[in-house]
From TrEMBL:
It comes from Actinophytocola glycyrrhizae. It comes from the Bacteria. This is TetR/AcrR family transcriptional regulator. It holds the Pfam family TetR_N. The lineage of its organism: Bacteria, Bacillati, Actinomycetota, Actinomycetes, Pseudonocardiales. The keyword DNA-binding applies. Residues 31-50 bind DNA. Gene3D superfamilies: Tetracycline Repressor, domain 2. Residues 8-68 form the HTH tetR-type domain. Keywords: DNA-binding, Transcription, Transcription regulation.
Length: 195
């Protein structure tokens, strides 16, 4: 690999390359060599910007979590519009068709990465925990608007939705579930709570 090639936005290019490798080849294929090869740069570039590969991966996961803020804001703004089931189906589909399932596999596979993430994310499974919070915040808004029964706990509904959707997506070997399958789990879980 050439070492004299200037890279703009090195972190972004390395993160995007890692995401492509992770989605295409899985967690076991994600190495510093695979990332730098995918990014078209020398292996030393990654190590100039990150102390080690687990530090790089931890920053990748945190970056992807930060990107969820836009999705969370859009979902909260959707409260009171459309249908609760439709909004949740769209949100879960967007979350799990992104990097979520692959990131959970990556975190599970790498002890060093889990240790790094625990420094800033002390509980839960990163990405899934933030996804559950996003859904709970939305359901709280809908409950406040009277579209979800007042006696229903948004956090419990959110945990159930995230867990069930994760199992649905993780159970597919590269194939994404149909939107109808996601909508069916949403309807089953929140259907009797919707007003």
């Amino acid at each position: 690999m050439p070492t004299g090639v200037a890279l703009r936005e090195v972190r972004r290019q390395l993160f995007d390359a890692a995401e492509r490798v992770l989605l295409r080849d899985g967690a076991n294929a994600l190495t510093s060599r695979a990332v730098t090869t995918e990014a078209g740069c020398a292996k030393g570039v990654l190590h100039r910007h990150f102390p080690d590969f687990d530090a790089f991966l931890a920053d990748l996961v945190r970056d992807r979590i930060d990107r969820m803020d836009t999705q969370a804001a859009a979902l909260r703004e959707a409260a009171g519009t459309g249908t609760v089931t439709g909004n949740l189906t769209s949100a879960l589909t967007a979350l799990f068709e992104s990097l979520a399932v692959a990131v959970v596999g990556l975190i599970t596979a790498r002890d060093g990465l889990r240790a790094r993430l625990r420094e800033t994310i002390p509980a839960g499974i990163p990405v899934l925990t933030e996804g559950a919070q996003m859904i709970a915040d939305y359901l709280t808004e809908e409950r406040d608007l009277g579209r979800i029964a007042a006696d229903r706990d948004p956090a419990m509904l959110a945990f159930t939705l995230i867990g069930t959707a994760h199992l649905l997506y993780a159970g597919k070997d590269g194939d994404r579930p149909e939107k109808d399958a996601v909508e069916e789990i949403v309807t089953t879980i929140v259907g009797d709570a919707v007003r």
